[in-house]
Write a sequence for this structure.
């Protein structure tokens, strides 16, 4: 036998938590052997394609499918009339509304699904789409939610009661026929009183524009109905496969045990792949009708125009403070543009997601938030694009309001934040809008960040730049963007978090094999986060078997335990906790087996890295590998054979990752061109499982933040036409436009999470967007700017400079 | 995004190309690198029944520098331009501009001929050709003719080329003096918000000649004779640059798009042009 | 109106011969006809580079090439760069430096990078960023992709030197 390893060597050999383990996923991806939805090819498979509305609001007068059906190779053309007898021409949305699967008499947004063509290959399907004749009668178009709330035009006749009555919606009373809900949190009167009596009040309308998650892989599925066995298999780009299975069962009537949903490799999600889309329903119906598999994969234009927009929040804010800068109150009224159907992906009780995290990192005693959801002639969606539910909106709002307050107070924005941070000893902290922040040490993070970038030096340099600009020596201004964000992730406690009535717990099931390797299955699904790598690390540390001997499997509802999927940075906080807890069950049984083998009492052995040792006699031990074998070959009195465990974890609270970011940006006042000179990101995600992967997540989230802040938008003209339907106009930066980032961290573990981890995938996006935006705004502060809206593309920056008179 | 079906032709010589063009008139289109035409066909915004692939046609690519003159075959790619030492000496502005077109992959496929013949106001080469006072060689059923780049463009996607003609080469005199190709865009792969091509010569501190053209600021490229004239005979000081910019602003007619409103584009044009002139002058 | 055309091509060293509609896009030929699914479809308008292959020595976006244009061509995809027993240096480097996350852009990214390093064996960071600007990644923010390519360049140069 080899020489005895030291404890440290044994720990390293596990590849457990905290190490920069290389990803096990990479072998197949780097060799082109990933298995994405569009790679799936089943015998006899047909292809589906949509006829879509060119109009944003129109009556569908008639649909003629004769010419399309006559085309050789076309198998079927489905319209709402075909789906109606099955009750599938409409489907429920995640937000308690319903959505047309195929146009039922009218269309409400450009690109809406009107008919579904099924053909032998995608070329024939595309040809047939051109041959479907649809007669439309255009209706007045509403693209502005404020105008929609004043308009006589009724977008959703299906929601009107008898004689023009206005029945309640899924979230209570509606104020107008284009109104969806009002959601209120906090104390309205008390907040108004605080504002009335405050030394200083800053007020601003902060608009967070509509954008889109735009993962590189679009949405798609392959539906395969096996009529002999009555089983439906649905492969798809699903961030929540189990939830999709339940939804498909509920709307199709197929019993849930006869449905198998499989999420194969997913080419990025970022929230786009949480929802259920008409393409899935039509493909399932088409497979049932034809008896063969049907594939549907949207193209990029369809993706940008129809599935899953994000943001589109008009946030009217007021923030009050004493003249010394102590914040006393926060008021926010948001008008939320939800498009033609309310398909926002939020927990049921939170129609505006966790927007009530908008008090941010600050100790604000009194606050009030109201959100009004409104229908318009835009695509439905409202997903959480790389953030927890509406948390980017909240973080952007508070981080802009704090900057504007600093201007009002004539204070340094870093100092204003410092004097208002929730203090370390205030945690767990009860926020005015109802959350209990688990842990934090904001002052330490903030000071570390400011020191790392030499904040005072930067401000001095900026002041000199302003002087130089005024003296005509330069045409470039310098912006210093600051952000201290607090996220709320890990949804969530079943007592208040559910989607369509499904509690937002998550799960892990572990089987240890006799030879000491293992498979663990989870209810989540990786879309690039590296779950197969990191969850094995958690387990390696928990059960003392090498990470390399542990297979992680997700995404197949026939084998994985029920879970709510991956979005909102919930995988590590919820499924990661389930993994640790299941691992501990394994360890508890292993302890009994070890004690039996060592012929001592259970309490006389203790876990030590990869083994159980007899207390006080470490030379007497049984390794986990030995214990695993014993579990399968020894008859141990009172203990069942085998070594398996399952855990369903209902988190007691959310987790609250936070971070301190600084961006230094140069802005060419004449062209509006921006240059990010430096970006420093300090993240505190609690316990760090794999620093390499964390860093990668931060780089990626910041880059998506850069895109959103500096140009990425879904823009409409007044007729409701999408102006940004391809990657020519929808801004995804290349390597050339993206800087190198400096990453840093502090570690404040979550007290309620089994391993103290908080989740990190979305923090950099949540914190990054306001940081980039604050840098742009800050560059013009010396010239009197209070606030300018995103996206800060060249012409909008130019316009800001122009309005400030900086072009002479 | 799936294109409609078409008949594919891949002739080996120009005769073969012309016979298809003559037979099918405007139902036929020639295909060079395809990176403008194919996306339009995939979006079903271009209806092409007969597609004539030029890749096998002999004699249509290559860069020939002969003393003071340069001839570039239409099928020469942007990447060929970037990697040509001969061209780097004879017309470094071509190198500077080609690097600012699209992205690496597109530059391997995108050709000079396609870029100048398509008539897309967003393309960079047309303005550059006007700046260089290039001539285009067109071959049709009635033989070969040449047309000045400055006379070629009529409106967006409308040029002097007859439906039955093929643009086979561009020719221009080797450049002398200072040069600059300045382009503002939103990201790699984007068309210009504003782009300027400037060539000028200098003797004893005085500008002796200047040629200036701009891209994507009208429905055709804009070569402004007045802008060039405003620099000639001056020391290219601020006043002269302002005069040149002013002259150019009188000739452009931008439209609003996602890159911004007209007012911004006019401003960006003036800044981009001013910088291009200054850079060209510094190199003269 | 359009008949099928007889096509021959060499893909990853293997001769292929088939009949296809001229309009068939090369990316579909590879993925659906030849079951070479490494190259992916991302944007379909030649902006994202997920479909990048090497065609007759050029980095090309195969979503914007008709199969008829590629008749007679020699094509290399990610599948032809390395194999499980002998990975390409770039394939190793992307794993080593965490140059990928969801993996969807990776085949196009590595295929393009292989051509870049062939043409410029010792690029600067700026040259890598410029030379890779035809490939979009939504996950990594590029920092580790650039790092991977630079590391691969160093390693390939060292191997070359050792061999000389």
């Amino acid at each position: 036998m080899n020489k005895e390893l030291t404890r440290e060597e044994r720990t390293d050999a596990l590849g457990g938590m905290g190490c920069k383990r290389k990803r096990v996923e990479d072998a197949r991806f780097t060799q082109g052997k990933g298995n994405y939805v569009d790679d799936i090819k089943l015998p006899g498979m047909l292809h589906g394609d949509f006829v879509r509305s060119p109009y944003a609001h129109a009556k569908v007068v008639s649909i003629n499918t004769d010419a399309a059906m006559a085309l050789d190779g076309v198998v079927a053309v489905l319209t709402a009339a075909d789906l109606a007898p099955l009750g599938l021409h409409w489907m429920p949305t995640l937000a308690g509304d319903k959505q047309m699967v195929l146009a039922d008499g009218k269309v409400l947004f450009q690109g809406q699904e009107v008919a579904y063509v099924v053909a032998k290959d995608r070329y024939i399907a595309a040809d047939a789409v051109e041959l479907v004749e649809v007669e439309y009668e255009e209706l007045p178009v509403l693209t502005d939610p404020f105008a929609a709330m004043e308009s006589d035009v009724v977008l959703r006749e299906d929601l009107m009661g008898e004689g023009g009555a206005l029945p309640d919606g899924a979230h209570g009373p509606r104020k107008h026929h284009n109104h969806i809900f009002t959601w209120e949190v906090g104390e309205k009167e008390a907040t108004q009183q605080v504002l009335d009596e405050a030394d200083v009040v800053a007020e601003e309308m902060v608009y967070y524009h509509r954008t889109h998650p735009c993962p590189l892989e679009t949405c798609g599925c392959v539906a395969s109905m096996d009529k002999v066995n009555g089983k439906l298999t649905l492969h798809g780009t699903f961030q929540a496969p189990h939830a999709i299975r339940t939804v498909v069962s509920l709307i199709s009537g197929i019993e849930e045990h006869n449905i198998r949903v499989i999420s194969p490799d997913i080419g990025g999600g970022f929230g786009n792949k949480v929802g259920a889309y008409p393409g899935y329903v039509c493909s399932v119906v088409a497979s049932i009708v034809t008896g063969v598999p049907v594939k549907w994969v949207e193209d990029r234009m369809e993706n940008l125009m129809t599935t899953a927009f994000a943001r589109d929040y008009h946030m009217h804010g007021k923030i009050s403070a004493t003249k010394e800068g102590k914040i006393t109150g926060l008021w926010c009224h948001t008008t939320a543009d939800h498009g033609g159907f309310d398909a926002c992906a939020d927990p049921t009780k939170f129609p505006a997601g966790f927007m009530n995290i908008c008090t941010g990192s600050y100790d604000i005693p009194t606050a009030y938030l109201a959100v009004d959801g409104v229908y318009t002639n835009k695509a439905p969606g409202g997903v959480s694009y790389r953030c927890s539910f509406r948390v980017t909106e909240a973080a952007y709002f508070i981080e802009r309001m704090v900057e504007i307050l600093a201007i009002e107070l004539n204070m340094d924005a870093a100092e204003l934040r410092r004097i208002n941070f929730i203090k370390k000893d205030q945690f767990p902290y009860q926020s005015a809008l109802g959350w209990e922040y688990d842990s934090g040490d904001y002052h330490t993070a903030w000071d570390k960040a400011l020191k790392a970038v030499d904040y005072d030096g930067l401000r001095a340099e900026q002041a000199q730049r302003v002087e130089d600009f005024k003296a005509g020596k330069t045409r470039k201004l310098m912006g210093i963007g600051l952000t201290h964000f607090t996220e709320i992730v890990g949804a969530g406690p079943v007592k208040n978090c559910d989607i369509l009535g499904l509690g937002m717990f998550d799960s892990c099931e572990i089987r240890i094999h006799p030879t000491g390797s293992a498979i663990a299955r989870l209810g989540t699904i990786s879309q690039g986060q590296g779950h197969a790598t990191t969850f094995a690390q958690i387990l390696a540390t928990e059960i003392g078997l090498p990470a390399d001997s542990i297979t992680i499997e997700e995404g197949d509802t026939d084998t994985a335990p029920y879970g709510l999927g991956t979005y909102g940075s919930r995988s590590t906080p919820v499924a990661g906790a389930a993994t640790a807890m299941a691992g501990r069950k394994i360890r508890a049984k292993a302890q009994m087996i070890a004690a039996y083998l060592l012929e001592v009492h259970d309490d006389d052995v203790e876990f030590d890295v990869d083994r159980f040792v007899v207390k006080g006699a470490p030379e007497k031990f049984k390794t986990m590998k030995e214990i695993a074998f014993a579990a399968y070959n020894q008859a141990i009195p009172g203990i069942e054979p085998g070594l398996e465990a399952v855990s369903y974890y209902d988190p007691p609270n959310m987790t609250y990752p936070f971070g301190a970011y600084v961006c230094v940006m140069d802005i060419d006042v004449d062209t509006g061109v921006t240059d990010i000179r430096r970006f420093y990101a300090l993240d505190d995600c609690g316990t760090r499982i794999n620093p390499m992967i964390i860093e990668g997540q931060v780089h990626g989230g910041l880059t998506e933040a850069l895109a959103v802040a500096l140009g990425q938008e879904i823009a409409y003209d007044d007729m409701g036409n999408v102006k940004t339907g391809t990657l020519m106009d929808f801004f995804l930066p290349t390597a050339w436009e993206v800087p190198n980032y400096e990453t840093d961290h502090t570690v404040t573990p979550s007290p309620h999470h089994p391993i103290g981890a908080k989740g990190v995938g979305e923090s950099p996006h949540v914190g990054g967007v306001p940081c980039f935006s604050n840098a742009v705004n800050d560059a013009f502060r010396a010239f009197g700017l209070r606030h300018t809206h995103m996206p800060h593309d060249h012409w909008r920056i130019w316009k800001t400079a122009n309005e400030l008179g900086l072009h002479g | 995004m799936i294109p409609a079906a078409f008949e594919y032709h891949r002739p080996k010589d120009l005769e073969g190309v012309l016979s298809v063009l003559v037979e099918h008139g405007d139902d036929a289109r020639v295909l060079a690198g395809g990176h403008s035409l194919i996306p339009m066909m995939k979006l079903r915004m271009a209806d092409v029944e007969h597609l004539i692939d030029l890749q096998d046609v002999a004699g249509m690519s290559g860069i020939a520098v002969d003393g003071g003159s340069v001839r570039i075959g239409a099928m020469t790619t942007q990447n060929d331009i970037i990697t040509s030492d001969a061209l780097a000496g004879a017309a470094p502005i071509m190198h500077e501009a080609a690097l600012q077109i699209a992205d690496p992959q597109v530059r391997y496929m995108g050709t000079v001929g396609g870029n100048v013949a398509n008539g897309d106001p967003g393309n960079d080469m047309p303005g550059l050709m006007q700046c260089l006072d290039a001539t285009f060689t067109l071959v049709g059923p009635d033989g070969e003719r040449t047309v000045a780049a400055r006379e070629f463009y009529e409106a967006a996607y409308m040029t002097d080329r007859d439906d039955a003609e093929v643009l086979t080469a561009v020719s221009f005199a080797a450049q002398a003096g200072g040069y600059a190709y300045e382009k503002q865009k939103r990201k790699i792969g984007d068309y210009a918000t504003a782009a300027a091509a400037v060539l000028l010569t200098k003797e004893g501190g005085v500008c002796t000649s200047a040629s200036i053209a701009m891209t994507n600021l009208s429905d055709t490229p804009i070569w402004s004779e007045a802008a060039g004239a405003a620099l000639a005979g001056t020391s290219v000081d601020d006043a002269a640059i302002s005069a040149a910019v002013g002259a150019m602003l009188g000739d452009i007619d931008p439209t609003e798009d996602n890159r911004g409103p007209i007012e911004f584009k006019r401003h960006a044009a003036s800044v981009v042009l001013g910088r291009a002139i200054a850079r060209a002058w510094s190199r003269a | 109106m359009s008949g099928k055309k007889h096509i021959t091509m060499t893909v990853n060293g293997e001769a292929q011969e088939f009949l296809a509609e001229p309009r068939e896009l090369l990316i579909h030929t590879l993925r659906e006809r030849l079951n070479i699914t490494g190259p992916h479809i991302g944007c379909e308008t030649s902006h994202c580079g997920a479909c990048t292959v090497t065609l007759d020595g050029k980095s090309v976006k195969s979503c914007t090439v008709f199969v008829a244009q590629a008749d007679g061509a020699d094509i290399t995809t990610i599948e032809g760069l390395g194999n499980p027993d002998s990975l390409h240096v770039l394939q190793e480097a992307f794993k080593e430096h965490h140059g990928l996350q969801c993996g969807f852009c990776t085949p196009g990214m590595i295929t393009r990078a292989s051509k870049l390093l062939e043409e410029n064996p010792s690029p600067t960071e700026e040259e890598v960023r410029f030379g890779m600007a035809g490939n979009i990644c939504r996950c990594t923010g590029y920092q580790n992709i650039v790092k991977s390519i630079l590391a691969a360049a160093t390693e390939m140069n060292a191997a070359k030197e050792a061999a000389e």
Chain C has five helices and five strands. Strands of chain C lie at 5-11, 14-20, 52-55, 58-61, 74-76. Chain C has two domains: 5-80, 89-163.
